[in-house]
Amino acid sequence: MLEMFQYGFLQNAFLAGIMIALVAPVIGVYLVLRRQSLMAETLSHVSLAGVAVGALLGLYPMLTAMVAALIGAVFVDTLRRSFKAYSELSIAILMSGGLASAVVLMSLNKGVSRSFTSYLFGSIIAVSETDLYVMGGVVALVGLFFWFLWRPMYVLTFDEETAQVSGVPVKLLSVSFSLLAGLVVAVSMPIIGVLLVSSLMTLPASIALRVSRGFAMTIFVAVLVGLTSVLGGLSASYALDIPPGGTIVLLLLAILVVTLIVKRIVSMIQARVGAEQDAENGNGVVRTLGER
Amino acid sequence: MIEMHDVWKTYPNGAVALQGVSVRIDKGEFVYVVGPSGAGKSTFIKLMYREERPSQGSIFVNGFNIERLKERKIPLLRRQIGVVFQDFKLLPTLTVSENIAFALEVIEAPKKKIKQRTAEVLELVGLSEKASALPNELSGGQQQRVSIARALINNPAVIIADEPTGNLDPETSWDIMNLFEEINRRGTTIVMATHNKEIVNTMKKRVLAVEGGRIARDERRGVYGYEN
Description:
Chain B: Residues 2-227 form the ABC transporter domain. The complex is a heterodimer. Chain A is mainly alpha-helical. Helices cover 83% and strands 0% of the residues of chain A. Chain A has 12 helices and no strands.
């Protein structure tokens, strides 16, 4: 297994994977808590249109994907406000819009063939050195954002009203966060693929929220789950010659199912132990009735 | 501490909730606000922490004229007031201590101070050993203690409680009420809307009865005065 690291492209893939696994789950936790789980999905569809534009114009696709995702992020935020009562409409509109333009733009470009599927489903040979530098930049940006703004972001996430009355610039912060999410989606694409990128954001978050107590632990567990799935998924992808995106998401789903089952069993055991203790201490039904 | 001068409140749908209410509550007082449902009790309470705005009249809380308050000064007002709700309003994914510390995170207080102050109020409400529990692992009474701790964290001059025992059984309600009594003894003004006849009649505090949008009674050592 270790001989796989002799290949430069695999080193690139793993480096990229680790960077994504560090930031995507963190963004995911905030998205899930803010009830915006579908935003990653939307932005990935929009950035696919960006890739199509890049391919058509012969530009660096990650760059055009980033631009598209940024524009998409601003739209999500603006549309969310104008359709207040039906805020999920903004998701539907942008998602279909993004996919539709991607398909049409792609059909205009006869030259596209293999590399496009790698953007759809992810590929471990698609990561270039330039990609790594861009990713590194985005990871640094995410780091800076949360280093300086974690407190207002924390308050905004849990209680937008309190944030507003406490003087947090709610609109600005909300848009900045959406932009950041857009960037992360755009750079995750070469590895995991446009169609699956949102899973790497929301699945670790939902697993972490099930098992953690408190916010700090939720973030930690989400990153841990992300790293496990990405490293495991990339290895399996190489060993079995299957696409990394699908492998990573299947691993995440497996972790989720195992988590749910283990939690079930634990709570059943706890209930039984609790009942036995009650019986030993004489806290059973009889005594309760006797007291009355 | 809290003063209202000829306060009127008409909602956009035309419903008149308050009609010319004037009242003065001094520092350190413990006041029950009673009255039938829909008589304006809730509006009266909400005006104090600026959840609602009066249509007419003026309201002062701890020296702030609520009406003239600039948008950016609202946080200053909120810091002088702790609010406790009937349904606790705790954040389900945060631990007890994270829930309590929240108000201090908002104002970017130093980490050390947050830790120290959180431990203090947890101790006061008797939940020190539950600091890292999640709200749904606690009983209703314990959850209400957490929300009282949260209201206390900024060391407010006044605590406003809107039916704090509405969701609790009688025995737990008494525990919570004794906690409020203790907080009041330490100098915090308390204004509490309640439907709990037994508690009001036993505690013998000042009672304000709101009926038909007016203060119908204001008694120093009052009673509940309604058949529930």
